[in-house]
Design brief:
The protein is an alpha/beta fold. It contains 15 helices and eleven strands. The chain starts with a strand and ends with a helix.
Length: about 375
């Protein structure tokens, strides 16, 4: 559908990928203007989130114009005619069209973070590449922007041969990898899932039913001085209203328990027992994304918030200092560096001044590396 915004014409399209290995069809939203840079941009949400993580609100609404990163990147600036062809990704279990109903197909809700990296991301990237080949007659390299877990799976994909071939650049926003520092946001969310049982779970519904959990989440999720309370409440209501697999939360507990971003072990109980012993670690874990960060050669922008209680700035700095790319940028949005406030986790994209401070930095980084 075509819209007129600030004297610009912008088109919103809904796309659905072909079924991946597990049969999941993934929902994509595309925003395009009349003239775009050659390289498309994929924006991916975080752990319990959906499209509202990077594309808050609905097109042409005041909240969309104020908070959506997709909105900011897809609308051209006053001094620039070109803008970015933005594709908002939604991983399995999210979007308007859900392939498998959790009540009828609970067995389909037994995935982990590795499935996002190995199945969902390739499905999304290949769909966009094929769309370009069919409609534009060329196959572009692609920018990946990931918020929180969306950045983590970007790191995982960038370590693969396919990722090295397809990615033009990688931007992560509050994305941990080291898991060496306590998180008073992600750890409590991860503990909502019991061990040895995998089932569909909706974090938004839990927070709305348990006020004590909601209060704890709100205190940890953002710098309360940098976000409107109604926006935070709405984000919980619509931005986290998804049915996901409890196995994902369980895997995050393993990350924190073992200070490692790694594949889900074949024997989690054995991994817990001897996984911290260096001699046995490689026997019980198949692959550590953390220990293979040096495989990443893609240009990287790693964004931190100085008051981020999910991804400590030291976590984000670890990422930027352990990749093998020749083009690495790291920024910590903090008051001492001239920004309005020490940013928290959610306010890096939903903050009062995110549009004026965080988004222009992302736009400029992309612009310098675009064709």
């Amino acid at each position: 559908m075509k819209y007129k915004i600030n004297n610009q014409s912008i088109i919103k399209e809904d796309h659905i990928t072909k079924p991946n290995e597990d049969g999941w069809e993934l929902n994509l939203i595309r925003y395009k203007t009349e003239e775009n840079y050659k390289n498309p941009v994929i924006l991916c949400h975080g752990l319990a989130a959906n499209k509202h993580s990077t594309d808050f609100g609905e097109i042409n609404e005041p909240e969309w114009l104020k908070y959506s990163l997709a909105s900011y990147l897809s609308l051209s600036k006053n001094d620039e005619k070109l803008s970015f062809d933005c594709w908002v990704a939604q991983l399995r279990g999210r979007g308007k069209k859900i392939t498998f109903n959790p009540e009828n197909n609970p067995e389909k809700y037994e995935w982990c973070v590795d499935d996002y990296i190995e199945k969902d991301v390739p499905s999304i990237v290949n769909y966009i590449k094929n769309w370009y080949l069919t409609n534009k007659k060329y196959t572009p390299k692609i920018f990946w922007i990931g918020k929180s877990m969306g950045g983590m799976i970007g790191y995982g994909y960038a370590q693969t041969n396919e990722g090295k071939k397809n990615l033009k650049g990688l931007i992560t926003i509050g994305s941990p990898v080291a898991f060496e520092y306590n998180s008073i946001l992600l750890e409590p969310i991860a503990r909502l899932a019991p061990r040895k049982m995998f089932f569909p779970i909706n974090v938004s519904e839990i927070l709305k039913k348990k006020q004590i959990y909601a209060d704890l989440f709100k205190r940890a999720a953002a710098n309360k001085k940098n976000i409107e309370s109604n926006i935070l409440n709405k984000y919980i209501d619509i931005g986290m209203n998804n049915t996901i697999s409890s196995k994902v939360l369980n895997q995050f507990l393993l990350f924190y328990r073992h200070n490692d971003f790694c594949k889900y072990p074949n024997n989690p109980w054995l991994y817990d027992l001897i996984g911290k012993i260096p001699l046995f670690k490689k026997i019980v874990t198949t692959y550590s994304y953390k220990e293979n960060m040096n495989k990443i050669e893609t240009p990287l922008l790693a964004i931190a918030g100085n008051n981020d209680k999910a991804a400590d700035p030291r976590e984000v700095r670890f990422c930027s200092t352990n990749v093998n790319s020749q083009d690495v940028s790291y920024i910590n949005f903090c008051k001492k560096d001239g920004y309005s406030i020490d940013y928290g986790h959610l306010d890096l994209n939903l903050g009062l001044n995110a549009k004026n401070e965080v988004y222009p930095y992302i736009y400029d980084w992309l612009k310098k590396r675009s064709e």
